[in-house]
């Protein structure tokens, strides 16, 4: 494996952090009510079932909270979550350009397909890099502002 010449982490943007925080607050409130209700009916299983959405949202956020970008002398590696990793050899990259990962093109953040047939790994509606490859669809990923 080549030595990494450049590396950065791009954390989730303010929109994502706010959205997840609101969902977690609502889910925590629902969980508190479920725990109180489960004590009144004598069934802890109800509270466990109600805790599942809170656990699910928390795990999703932990998994997709940042994009890791690494460049070696031979390739560009973009990692988003545990299972989503893209490798590009430097010679297959035709060009790259700075773009905005806007809502109109990608309809959200995360792993998205754009209206221009590109695939995007985005953590916010901010700065991104679009990689144009020979005979391949463009690939877009969020970068630090």
Please tell me what the overall shape is.
Answer: elongated
Question: Radius of gyration in whole Å, from Cα?
Answer: 20 Å
- What is the CA–CA distance across the termini? 29 Å
Strand portion: 35-45%
User: Pairing-aware structural class of the strands and helices?
Assistant: alpha+beta
SSE series: EHHEEEEHEEEE
Tally of helical segments: 3
Number of strands: 9
Strand order of the largest sheet: 5-8-9-7-6
Percent of residues in helical segments?
Answer: 25-40%
The major β-sheet equals: 5 strands, mixed
List descriptors.
3 helices, four-stranded antiparallel sheet, alpha+beta, five-stranded mixed sheet, 145 residues, 36% helix, 9 strands
Produce the secondary structure layout.
Blueprint: E1 6-11, H1 14-41, H2 44-63, E2 66-71, E3 75-80, E4 84-89, E5 93-100, H3 103-106, E6 110-113, E7 119-122, E8 127-133, E9 139-142
Parallel strand pairs: 7-9
Antiparallel strand pairs: 1-2, 2-3, 3-4, 5-8, 6-7, 8-9
């Amino acid at each position: 494996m080549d030595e990494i010449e450049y590396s950065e982490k791009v954390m989730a943007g303010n929109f994502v952090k706010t959205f997840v925080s609101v969902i977690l607050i609502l889910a925590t409130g629902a969980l508190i009510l479920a725990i109180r209700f489960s004590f009144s009916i004598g069934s802890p299983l109800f509270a466990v079932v109600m805790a599942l959405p809170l656990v699910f949202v928390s795990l999703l956020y932990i998994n997709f909270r940042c994009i890791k970008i690494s460049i070696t002398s031979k390739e560009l590696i973009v990692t988003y979550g545990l299972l989503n990793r893209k490798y590009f050899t430097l010679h297959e990259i035709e060009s790259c350009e700075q773009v905005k990962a806007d809502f109109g093109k990608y309809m959200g953040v995360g792993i998205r397909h754009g209206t221009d047939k590109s695939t995007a790994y985005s953590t916010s509606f901010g700065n991104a890099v679009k990689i144009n490859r020979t005979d391949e669809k463009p690939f877009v990923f969020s970068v630090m502002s």
